[in-house]
Amino acid sequence: MVWFMLVAGLVLLIIGADVLVRGAARLAAAFGVPALVIGLTVVAFGTSAPELAVSVKSSFAGQAELAIANVVGSNIFNVLFILGLSALVAPLVVSQQLIRQDVPIMVGLSALVVLMTLDGMIGRLEALVLVTGLLLYTVFLFYQGRKNNAAEADAGSDAEPAAPLWQNLLLVVGGLALLVLGSRWLVDSAVSIAASFGVSEAVIGLTIIAAGTSLPEVMTSVMATLKGERDIAVGNVVGSNVFNILCVLGVSGLVSPQPLVAGEQLSGIDIPVMLAVAALCLPLFFTGALLHRSEGAVFLLLYLAYVGYMVTLATASPYNGLLLQIISFGLLPLVGLFVLLTLAHDLRQRRNA
What is the pTM of this model? Predict the structure, then answer.
């Protein structure tokens, strides 16, 4: 029954996020919000809504460490697994705006989380800083979108026929209801499973829940890649990671009756990994403004190594030390060499062009 609730909770989260995005996008269009802002805010929020629902539910249920672990695990999963998988399907185009603006913002916010959790927690004041950043970021995107709105209007759009206001509101309310119910089933069942196997909340949040709540991003990015809209695949991941930090951590920290907890493993391993993964995007995105299949394979390999380390650490496996040595002295140096060779190859091509 517990496993059934886990799967059912994931299904409800996916359906709820899809319904919420559809209704919110129609409402935004009806009120004349620029299309660019809809894409960068409504879609990013919609695909991050499962993380928000789960983290808020976790904070109220007294599982304060699960709230941060869910965000950290989702951000790592988004970059390494989703972008890696999408790049294997087809090389991903990375826009100049993402390279110059959105990816540095993602890296900066990841560094901010590292600083905030040095004391092992995120309090209400720090959460307020994140929510304030969310408001400023949204206003900035709206201002940026207004400049492009006239060009979009001239080019025309294939917008859906206008639906009655009550239908759009019903979609939003229905999507939120599904997210709330799905998050309750997912969190309760996942914690029960973790307890039965003796696994900590942090590990279950970094793996099962993080992957489950990121399923909307998986579907959005892979489908965008298959349809040839490869820039959307990257933008969806970067935008979702920014919203996970600003919105999910910020709102969860504000409504939680106690500070969000970042235990020794989260603050010492997983959050720095989130920062390193975000920083890895900068040099690889910069090279030719493309994420090639080989780079996607590297992302997937890193994710498998990370999950493998988490599992051996949680189960106190005797192979944990050996795996850590392989990652530290084998895999990571090879990835560093790969990045340097990729940058050198790109520089050589630019000089010959």
Answer: 0.80
